[in-house]
Design brief:
This protein is an alpha/beta fold. It has two domains: 2-173, Nitrogenase molybdenum iron protein domain (Rossmann fold), CATH 3.40.50.1980; 188-315, Rossmann fold, CATH 3.40.50. It contains 13 helices and 14 strands. It is globular and about 55 Å long.
């Protein structure tokens, strides 16, 4: 409640103050300039929408997209979104965004947009809709390094600049860094990293997180090592043979959609080819909700969940 009141005060003061525009931000391999703060914003996906809400930007939004078609918003987010329409259950069309009067689209590559798809920054710009791309997703359109918490902080800072709510962004970042530091103190760097595999979905071949996807950073911060951290891709498919060869000691299950985490675990346990994998033999599964596994304000919760599972003695003190 205190944070909500503080953010409300920040926003009311921002509206009254002279805006600091034009503002130019880096969005993947583009620079985007805003002559004024957007007033008809649309966000795609759970994690991006949570960022907007955390910065107190609901009143600047005309809707959101890409949640109910394949994700589940938690109870807190559902309550916060009351009165704000879901414009498309999955990816929106250009027509949907135009009809909503959108002037800003917060999305990412494979988070509301596809390379060569019908909705891209280049196609939206002539219609007066500026796009800001999720930093973690930039690996789909440009060379970049491994995913990190700096990607999330960068997005929050840029949203703060775009909407002239930098103090609110700084508050959220400070909370995240404080929580992350607390987990790091617990781990103290003495235990060896635990080999960890991320299982999102897939039966014939697993859909997992490579070097450029956020779980690699989460696992590292939690005292583990993503066994696919040499795969220079974001979310991608690998072979089961590769999983077996790398023999993870723990498996992070990304929980979302129609297939439950329990069903995913049952599938893994019933695969003969995986029976000798250490994580399967130990039944060492760590369930992480989608919005904690993808870039956003809840990433630190994922780090703590994974760290407690990988290094339980560090949290028994």
């Amino acid at each position: 409640m205190v944070l909500a009141l503080a953010l409300g005060s920040v926003l009311s003061n921002t509206v009254a103050a002279a805006p600091h525009y034009p503002v130019t931000v880096q969005s993947c391999n583009r620079t985007v300039t805003f002559e004024r703060a957007p007033t008809h914003a649309v966000s795609n996906d759970v994690n991006l929408t949570e960022m907007m809400i955390a910065l107190g930007l609901k009143s600047r939004m005309v809707g959101f997209t890409g949640i109910s078609g394949w994700k589940t918003a938690n109870a807190a987010l559902r309550a916060q979104l009351t009165g704000l329409p879901e414009l498309a259950q999955r990816y929106p069309s250009i027509e949907v965004l135009v009809q909503a009067g959108a002037d800003f689209y917060f999305a990412g590559w494979n988070y509301g947009m596809h390379v060569g798809g019908p909705v891209t920054p280049a196609l939206l710009a002539p219609l007066g809709i500026r796009t800001y791309e999720l930093s973690e997703s930039c690996g789909h359109v440009m060379p970049r390094g491994a995913a990190s918490f700096d990607d999330v902080y960068n997005d929050l800072r840029n949203l703060g600049r775009i909407f002239d709510v930098a103090p609110a962004a700084n508050t959220v970042i400070a909370q995240m860094t404080t929580q992350l530091a607390a987990v790091k103190r617990r781990l103290d760097g003495k235990s060896p990293p635990v080999r960890t595999f991320v299982y999102d979905s897939g039966e014939d071949s697993p859909f997992t997180a490579g070097r450029l996807a956020m779980p690699t950073a989460l696992i590292e911060a939690a005292g583990g090592r993503n066994v696919m951290d040499d795969v220079t891709q974001s979310w991608t498919r690998v072979s089961w043979e590769t999983v077996v060869a790398r023999n993870p000691q723990a498996i992070v299950i990304v929980d979302y959609g129609a297939v439950t985490a329990a069903q995913k675990i049952a599938f893994l346990l019933n695969q003969p080819a995986l029976r000798q994998v250490d994580a399967i033999r130990a039944r060492r599964f760590i369930v992480v909700p989608y919005d904690e596994a993808t870039p956003g304000i809840h990433n630190v919760q994922a780090v703590e969940t994974i760290a407690r599972a990988l290094h339980p003695t560090a949290f028994a003190k």
